[in-house]
Amino acid sequence: MTRAPDRLPRLILGATCYSDAYSTIELAVPLAGRLGAELLGVLIEEDAILSYAGMPDARTIGEPGKAAQQVTAEKMMAAFRQDAAQFKRALGQAATVAKIAWSFEQRRGQFSRVFEGLAGTGDLLVLAYARPRHHRRAIALVMGQNATPALYSNAAGVAQETGLPLVIFVPVAASAKIRAELMQDLPNHRRAPDVVVRDYASYDDLMRQIGALAAGLVFLAADVTGKLDLRQLTDAARCPVAIDSGLREPGAAPQPGQDTAGPQ
Q1: End of a domain among 128, 145, 179?
Q2: Structure confidence by residue, pLDDT tens digits, 13-59
Q3: Which domain, by its residues, includes 100?
Q4: pTM here?
């Protein structure tokens, strides 16, 4: 995906249902404002959900005390359309109040492929997840082999605005190097109220630690993204996940003459 060199970055908020989208909009809109980014909402009609709905004995999971209801592909498509309309309306209202340019799309396919295929360099992808505000205990940042000052700056900004600590996860193999870079380079960037750095020995270990954190939002560095199943990470974290695709500093302009390209 090729973008014009002078385009604004985008914050792309993807969801498969309105409840996830609605809960995440309050985090996504101010983050887009901080980045100087356009806001794109995408309701994704997940192939796996539609395939299940097309099975003869498909049922919804009922609330306690209520019987499960039969679901069909037609009913699920109608539900997607309703969620898309609600998502678009809520996003437009929030973005208009914040004076942020926004747009909305509805797509069908395998969630991760559709979602990742939307991004160009400089965009931030946010996987929506319904996490009540009172269950948010920290903002998390997952780094790979290198410190990422721009991503840190944005994660620290969210932590500062929400009053939550920032927990930075770094791989054991690169821990000493990244910790030194954090100490040397990051004092010039926006600081969170409280910063904790934790090592992870493997991606399974990372999943366990994030699952126990009760995070409100997880930022994921670009060099880690391809090594994790994003759906599994979101389910483990039980909160929205923001994926770096080459972030600039908040408000920074694109480099002159620099084309940007997303995943092939």
Answers
A1: 128
A2: 999 889 999 999 999 999 999 889 999 999 988 766 656 555 566 55
A3: 9-128
A4: 0.79
Asked, for residue 34, whether it belongs to a domain, the answer is: yes
Domain boundary pick from 68, 94, 128: 128
200 assigned to some structural domain: yes
Of 223, 226, 205, 207, nearest to 215 by C-alpha is 207
